[in-house]
């Protein structure tokens, strides 16, 4: 059971380059998330999607765009990367509500912008 | 907006000791979920324990238990008989009912010393 799969695991970009982080989940979850993790800042929510076709801004959406392609996939795009976007990015998914609700995370993508 | 505060950036304890990690949150909601996640050096995010706000009984999972004080908006994690494998970053998280955002605190880095 793959769970949540993110690609790539590592990436180095030059300032101004663009890239898309891919995320797919095989648990039939409705909700999906993108977080960034920086030292001393914890996990901050970038965007989330409650269901296919819907997306909402989180705490730090500036500089990012997302696409909920279908129920399985939720991608994060950096149109013009900046050094401030150097971070570890996590995708997660969850079933919206219920006694066993929890977020399942991918293994993370370490992105360096030089 | 909901906020989650972890006031202990870093802690160290000897193995076999008991340690308590603090978490407070701010919300006007009455129904919500609270979580503790563990992130070991592998970077994988692992759910440790979950609490539903309407449940008065504190959640317990083996050596892990919580002290949920709803009126005080406090949700601390107690690790009993700590083990070297408990060394990790621990995150407290909040999600309100009928919402999809999961908000995390900044984390507490826990070192278990031999």
In the predicted model, the low-confidence regions of chain B spanning at least 5 consecutive residues are none
Annotation, overall tally of beta strands of chain B: 12
Q: Could you tell me how far the N terminus lies from the C terminus of chain A, measured between alpha carbons in angstroms?
A: 36 Å
Strand content of chain A: over 45%
Biggest interface goes to: A-B, 30 and 23 residues
Please bin the fraction of helical residues of chain A.
Answer: under 10%
Mean pLDDT of chain A: 94
DSSP helix fraction of chain B: under 10%
Topology order of chain B in helix (H) and strand (E) letters: EEEEEEEEEEEE
- Overall geometric form of chain A: globular
SSE class of chain A: mainly beta
Describe the structure in your own words.
The complex is a heterodimer of chains A (114) and B (114). Chain A is built from no helices and 11 strands. Chain A is mainly beta. In chain B, the strands form 3 sheets. In chain B, strands 2, 5, 6, 10, 11 and 12 form a 6-stranded mixed beta sheet that branches. Chain B has a 4-stranded antiparallel beta sheet with strand order 3-9-8-7, with no helix packed on it. In chain B, strands 1-4 form a two-stranded antiparallel sheet. In chain B, strand 7 and strand 8 form a beta hairpin. Chain B is globular. Classes of the chains: A mainly beta (114), B mainly beta (114). Chains A and B meet through strand 4, strand 5 and strand 9 of A and strand 6, strand 10 and strand 11 of B.
